[in-house]
Amino acid sequence: MVQLFGEFHQTPIESEEYLILGFSPSSIPLKQRWRNNGLSADFLADYLTVFFPANEDENTNDRHTEIKCAVGYIANELLENAMKFNDKTIHYPISIQLYLYHDRIIFCVTNSISPLAVEKFQAYLQELIHSDPQELYIDQLERNAQDDQGKTSGLGLLSMINDYMATLGWKFETVKKDPEVIAVTTMAQLTV
User: Fold this and answer.
1) What is the C-alpha separation between 167 and 125, in angstroms, rounded?
2) Percentage of the residues of the chain whose pLDDT score is greater than 90
3) What DSSP designation does 155 have?
4) CA–CA gap between residue 26 and residue 83 (Å, rounded)
């Protein structure tokens, strides 16, 4: 089974500059992994800024800072989601791939997902794809304000779209039949 949602491109144009990081989600507890997510996102942002050097020109320096901030935020959100929603019953690796093009940066994060969670997640993606992201963002802020237990957020993907103008896509793929292992790859494209 392969299902695509949103702006997912099966075969991105080859890039001369790319970076791939892999994680074993079961190697340390999730709470300890949060710090590693931030460090990994910062590393990716620092790595990419080499290709967008800052100089004395104020516009170039602002662009450099803007790209670094956007890459760090998007990478961190994608990694946190991958760790949080990864199927903990199997030992499928999580990876983040970063591709640099002259006009965009593409992030691809792959993790496993419980077969029981696929339908609910795909329904959310349909809503996200076919709704106004600004309205969804406001609705989610209101839901978060009413949540006494602080268990909802749901703002990461919406922030990528609204704040960074990222285009998002997803691929669901059965990578193993017995036991069933479903991998989901989230693709975020950022225009630079």
Assistant:
1) 13
2) 60
3) -
4) 10
Neighbouring C-beta atoms of residue 103, cutoff 10 Å: 7
Helix (H, G, I), strand (E, B) or coil at 13: coil
In contact, 103 and 192? CB cutoff 8 Å: yes
For domain 2-191, the CATH class is: alpha beta
3-state helix vs strand vs coil in the chain, percent to 5 = 45, 25, 30
Residue ranges of the domains in the chain? Answer: 2-191
Q: How many CB atoms lie within 10 A of CB 13?
A: 9
| Number of other CB atoms surrounding residue 24 within 10 Å | 10
- pTM (predicted TM-score): 0.90
Annotate 146-170 with b (16+ C-beta within 10 A) or e (fewer): eeeeeeeebbbbbbbbeebebbbbb
Distance CA(84)–CA(88), nearest Å, equals 9
The secondary structure of 67-115 as a DSSP string is: HHHHHHHHHHHHHHHHHHHS-TTS---EEEEEEE-SSEEEEEEEEEE-T
Summarize pLDDT for 90-137 with one digit per residue, the tens: 989 999 999 998 889 999 999 999 999 999 999 999 999 999 999 999
Q: List Cβ neighbours of 64 (8 Å cut-off, separation of 6 or more).
A: 49, 52, 53, 54
